[in-house]
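thought: fold this chain, then report.
action: predict
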Amino acid sequence: MNDEGGRREGRQRAKTDFRFDDARLCFAFAGTLADRGADVHVERLVLPEDLSRWCVESGCTTAAPVCTEADLERARALREAIQRTGRALADAAPPAVEDIALVNGAAAEPTSVPELSADAASVRWRGGGAGAVLSMVARDLIALCDSEHRARVRICGNPACGTPFVDTSRAGARRWCSMKTCGALVKKRAYRARARTTADGE
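observation:
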């Protein structure tokens, strides 16, 4: 079982675990390639089974779809189109035509559909495989672009991260894709640097 951040219960979260902290669906998907600003990236969608697991952990479907290598290739292509489009929004620049075409193509597929339980206490998502989930991801980016939040897209202030996020803070001063991960990491590094400086000064 996983918690809301994609961490398996009973152990510390690994670098390869999926992250959903404070993220829109489309940018959580972009985050399946981690450490974009570092010399070595961390690929979280290594196998088709990883994509299947992301589909469930993201909440887009209840039953894990059977994913193929072709599904994985399409997913990675969509992910990179979303990443580049997110960066374009953050820079207030027009996105690439090819990326928009790819997003629109994914969004054109039928999505998973919600099914209410008999007691109306829960919802199950039923869909037609990985394509249905990727359609939901693409449509989330489209909905973002059609909202006032498009002007609040930022790139994480952790230089090693590079993941887009939506700054919904009242002051518009959020710097990190997640305070639980990148924010905490950068603040910890800054604290250690100050401690070393103090120690050197003594």
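thought: worth noting. Residues 1-7 have pLDDT under 50 and may be disordered.
final: tokens above.
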